[in-house]
Design goal:
The chain is of the alpha+beta class and 525 residues long. A five-stranded parallel beta sheet has the order 2-1-5-6-7, sandwiched between helices.
Length: 525
């Protein structure tokens, strides 16, 4: 690995070099402080954060100041000689492009807030081959991140520290001597190796800071804001066993800034949820719920199940739910007369939907033979005459289902001679809303005479994808129409009220139409 951004070996720059560094990062950076290896004034970090939280959240506090500052804002106030950033462990579920986009924004925010500091980007630490406590971690992804970080550093004009090479074993995983068993967190031995590598790959330049006056003092850091436990100072060495005895943590869950859903945990719901964990044995279950037109993709730490349960807490959790837009639209073409044929087509939108997940439904029942098909063809047979059919389709991804628009067809008894974009009905189709209404007395008038007049496709429940309407009579209540409930004959309507038009009405002639809406039990053919 050679690059103008890569820091190469030097003589040990000593404690003076290390003491002029502000360390920015996640739990492994916090452990530098918790184990007495750096001072409180030397770090801006929080357990469980990724690049997005580091960029956007107020995680840094100072004494005699009630405000919370983002990392970039804190750097401007603390005026460090140099900063070392070590983030990415909690972004392992991201794709490399999104990770680099977030990281770039963070570096640029620091450059803009305080352009006088030297910026060193450290590698994402490797994980040991046995990382059973965090099974979703992927060393290959980490290696990809680090190669992309090197390129980013070249483009931004900052330095790259390849400390991963000092922490890896011969097989390319984290050296087990440096990590807690089955874990991704560095023990004191690993932290000391990291710091030694930092001092022996030093980046020493002229101090460009205008001044170092009025630097505020960091407020004491606690793992849980509700806890009053004081973190140790740099002069108080703490063993790793003491760190592991902590049982007060905070679990933060949020929806990605692009939106698309919400979160639920027990009786609580919202775009962000915070759960206080008071016992290592406590578990937290959160479900990501997509909005209409969206599917759940993953959590930022790589978990792909919508419902996640976090247990065995030994640090804070801070994860983001990612959703993506997805939809399915159905359309149809053909004729609605006896002996005619029709074609349904499903169009998918969104990168995560696949045709294999498509399911077709007619009057609420799945047509299993049509599963996985984007185009379904069929013919109108005698058994369909006089029936009304409603068709829609669904598509799924990651336990999330999106539903299409609904198309409706009333089949005529005669053969259609032309096409249009409306459903067609036969002469026998009456505007009565049900069988009971057709035999009602003169006093039992239809609920709405307007509804019993021939209706265009736009007023008969067709979707917004339907084309222009034609003068075709529809049942007054499309929801009540079905294959079994055929419209009454003209003789049955003779005793109906005057408002019930005779079947011979000019407007009740069979319409020849290219159906935008159709369905049948043979939709699978």
């Amino acid at each position: 690995m050679t690059s103008s951004a890569l820091l190469t070996g030097t003589a040990d720059a000593g404690d003076a070099y290390q003491e002029q560094i502000l360390f920015i990062g996640d739990s492994n950076t916090v452990r530098l402080y918790a184990n007495g290896l750096i001072s409180l004034q030397q770090f801006c970090a929080k357990e469980g954060i990724g690049t997005s939280a580091a960029l956007n959240e107020g995680i840094v506090t100072f004494k005699r100041d009630d405000n919370r500052y983002t990392i970039a804002q804190a750097v401007a106030k603390m005026k460090p000689r140099r900063v070392v950033i070590m983030l990415g462990t909690n972004d392992n579920g991201m794709n490399t492009e999104d990770f680099i986009s977030n990281y770039t924004a963070l570096v640029q925010a620091i450059q803009a807030s305080y352009p006088y500091t030297d910026i060193i980007v450290n590698t994402v630490p490797p994980v040991p081959s046995n990382h059973s406590n965090y099974p979703n971690m992927d060393q290959t992804r980490i290696d990809d991140f680090n190669m992309a970080l090197l390129t980013m550093c070249e483009q931004l004009g900052v330095k790259f520290l390849n400390s991963a090479e000092a922490l890896k074993d011969a097989n390319g995983y984290g050296n087990v001597d440096y990590y807690q068993s089955g874990d991704i967190h560095l023990k004191p031995a690993g932290l000391k190796v990291l710091l030694k590598y930092l001092r022996t790959h030093a980046y020493e330049t002229e101090d460009r800071r205008p001044d170092t006056n009025n630097i505020p003092t960091r407020a004491e850091y606690t793992a849980n804001p509700s806890s009053a436990v004081e973190a140790p100072s740099s002069s108080e060495a703490v063993s790793s066993s003491v760190v592991e005895e902590k049982t007060e943590y905070q679990a933060d869950y949020r929806v990605d800034k692009t939106g698309g859903g919400s979160l639920t945990c027990g009786d609580e719901s919202g775009k962000s949820l915070t759960v206080k964990v008071t016992s290592a044995a406590q578990s937290v279950t959160v479900t990501a719920v997509p909005e209409d037109g969206y599917v759940f993709v993953k959590w930022s730490d790589g978990v792909t199940k919508r419902t996640r349960t976090d247990t065995n807490f030994d640090q804070n959790v801070d994860v983001t739910a990612v959703f993506a837009a997805a939809s399915i639209q159905v359309s149809s073409s053909g004729k609605a007369g006896l002996g005619d044929s029709y074609t349904f087509k499903a169009t998918l939108k969104g990168k995560y939907l696949d045709a294999s997940s498509i399911r077709w439904y007619v009057n609420g029942s799945e047509v299993t033979q049509a599963a996985g098909k984007t185009t379904v063809k069929g013919e109108v047979d005698p058994s369909m005459v006089g029936g009304t059919f409603r068709v829609y389709a669904t598509a799924s991804y990651n336990d999330c289902t999106v539903t299409s628009n609904k198309l409706e067809l009333t089949v005529s008894g005669g053969t259609s001679g032309s096409t249009s974009s409306s459903s067609a009905s036969s002469k026998e189709d009456k505007p009565a809303s049900s069988k009971e209404e057709t035999s009602s007395s003169k006093e039992e008038k239809p609920a709405s005479s307007k509804e019993e007049k021939p209706a265009s496709s736009s007023s008969n429940g067709t979707s917004e994808s339907a084309g222009s309407s034609s003068k075709v009579e529809k049942p007054a209540s499309s929801a009540a129409s079905s294959k079994e409930e055929k419209p009454v004959s003209s003789s049955q309507s003779s005793s109906s009220s005057k408002e019930e038009k005779p079947a011979s009405s000019k407007e009740e002639k069979p319409a020849s139409s290219k159906t935008e809406v159709s369905a049948s039990k043979e939709a699978a053919n």
